[in-house]
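Annex B. Sample input.
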Amino acid sequence: MKIMLVDDSATMRRIQKTQLSGMGVTDVIEAGNGEEAMARLQENMPVDLVLLDWNMPVMDGMTFLKKVRENDSYSKVKIIMCTSESEKPKVVEALKAGANNYLVKPFQPEALKEKLGI
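Annex B, continued. Sample output.
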């Protein structure tokens, strides 16, 4: 499984990468914002899953999500929003825009494992 971590916080990416490694996932790509993630996605297809933060500079997670969902080349890429945005309208907005799932930070490794289905 190839996973992309998209978060402007290097610390959060490191935490997620460590959690994924503990689950046996070692093929991990990182990006610090949505614009960088678009470039990395194009370079590294196929990507199975994106763990996506909402609030980032340059291009936020919602804009990235919408751009990915507009492109049929990425139709099989699963996207889980991993964000501190916990209000129900935000969750609904992300799911309607095409997110496959939603995880509120901070989260435990077990919650991530459950969302990944591994």
